[in-house]
Amino acid sequence: MQPCLSLTLAELPPMLWETVKQTLASALPVSEYSLWINPISCVRETQQMLEIACPDRFFCAWVRDRYLKLIEASLSSLTGSPPAVLLTVAAAPQPQQEANGSGQLRLPGMSKFKASVRSLHPGYTFEQFMVGQSNLMARAACRAIADADPSFGNSLFLTSGTGLGKSHLTQAVAHQVMLRAPQTRLHYLTAQQFSAEMVKCIRENSMEQFSGKFIQGCDLLLIEDVHTLSGKTKTQEELNNILDYLIKAGKRVILTSAVAPRSLNGVDEDFRSRMTSGLVTDIKAPEYSTRAAIIRHKAATSCLSLGDDHVHLLAEHLQGDIRRIESALLGLRAKASLCNTQPDTDMVREVLEGLVSFDQGGRGKRLNGETIRELVSSQFRVSIDELLSRSRKQAVSFPRQIGMYLTRKYTEESLANIGSLYNRDHSTVLYAIKAVSRDIAQKSSVRQQVEMLTDKLGTQQPGALD
Q: At a CB cut-off of 8 Å and minimum separation 6, what does 242 contact?
């Protein structure tokens, strides 16, 4: 075996850093080398010091944490007396004016950035979003991120059931940024689109371009429906790395999910922690006052004239997701157009009959999620606060599951709305329904309790639809 040779700096080629890069190129994956080593330039070489520069301070911190020891080890293998490594930030070049006279400033050598977004609904803007207690925090956080206001932080995890407005808010951010700051490098896509694009790049052996697009070419990342990444280990790993860099670099990130973070199954814990490192908030089903405001606003934009009694009818009975309200107003608009008249009470009732349950007298049923919750609380001697708590005691969890089961069976409440009644998400509601259904089939005691409660619910007096 030949002895290992140690070279002094004077015996090495003039550019020591280029030699180190060649060593690292053989030690690292191509995509990793292209992203983190190749952009580094040598500023100064002496026998005592090797000064290398990174594109920005966040890039510099990343390299220091993950590659400095590897760089130092490479130097030691090349010279017996390796110089100290000094990481600095490259001096920013002077910006130059766009040749097309648009007035947009751009760094030399950079191509004009075109925002990467999925299709945007023209009506999904902040101006068209009705604010209430159920969505106040979510709306404020999204507006702050759109305006680059750090009041709510730079990272947001937004969760809600379907049809409650999380896509509206996310697209409102995109609309606002593209209007007010078109130079922002914005990427807006679904988690499924992210995954599909990543798979395509893996097949085409172009992962360095894929990662670089988000890491080095993104100021604002909007990804919807991250719950669909459950079980997709490779995609989670790639997105986790991207989020790690963007969040540490102070970039803005918004993630949305139909499932609360703690209930995400098939998700790596490090990925879960990274996604929720900023503000986590949700959108609940709108309360009566917000539903009424939404109805008035959407009716006005549809040129529908609705009286206060009509608005009350609709807001009282169209609970849950907002799409039911939109469906009702669409039906009213169609009927009013056919009859060449403005909606009246009979027309409103007729539309509601297709969306909510009524008794034989044509009156809306009083039975709702709150009524069932109160009955369960009374019969099992468990307070409402206990049903809303995080307690997993059998004396609390069992009545809670019964309440969810009965609400799903005897009302028109959505899964998300049922979950909000018990401070849970829709996946917990689904589990409760399955558990109670199984127990009814297997345990006579549970079946008898449910039948007794059902009888009591049947004695509820229906309230007039007015």
A: 211, 214, 215, 221
Amino acid at 229: L
* Between 465 and 86, the higher pLDDT residue: 86
Q: Are strands 155-160 and 252-257 parallel, antiparallel or unpaired?
A: parallel
Taking only the tens place, the pLDDT of each residue in 70-96 is 888 888 888 777 888 888 887 755 444
**SS3 string of 175-218?**
HHHHHHCCCCCEEEEEHHHHHHHHHHHHHCCCHHHHHHHHHCCC
pLDDT computed for residue 371 by the predictor: 83
| Mean pLDDT computed over 451-463 | 62
pLDDT band at residue 185 under the 50/70/90 scheme: very high
Q: Are 291 and 315 in contact (CB under 8 A)?
A: yes
Query: Where does residue 462 rank: exposed (0-12), middle (13-18), buried (19+ CB within 10 A)?
Result: middle
Rg (CA), the chain: 30
Amino acid at 47: Q
176: number of Cβ within 10 Å: 18
Domains of the chain: 9-89 (3.30.300.180), 119-283 (3.40.50.300), 288-353 (1.10.8), 369-458 (1.10.1750.10)
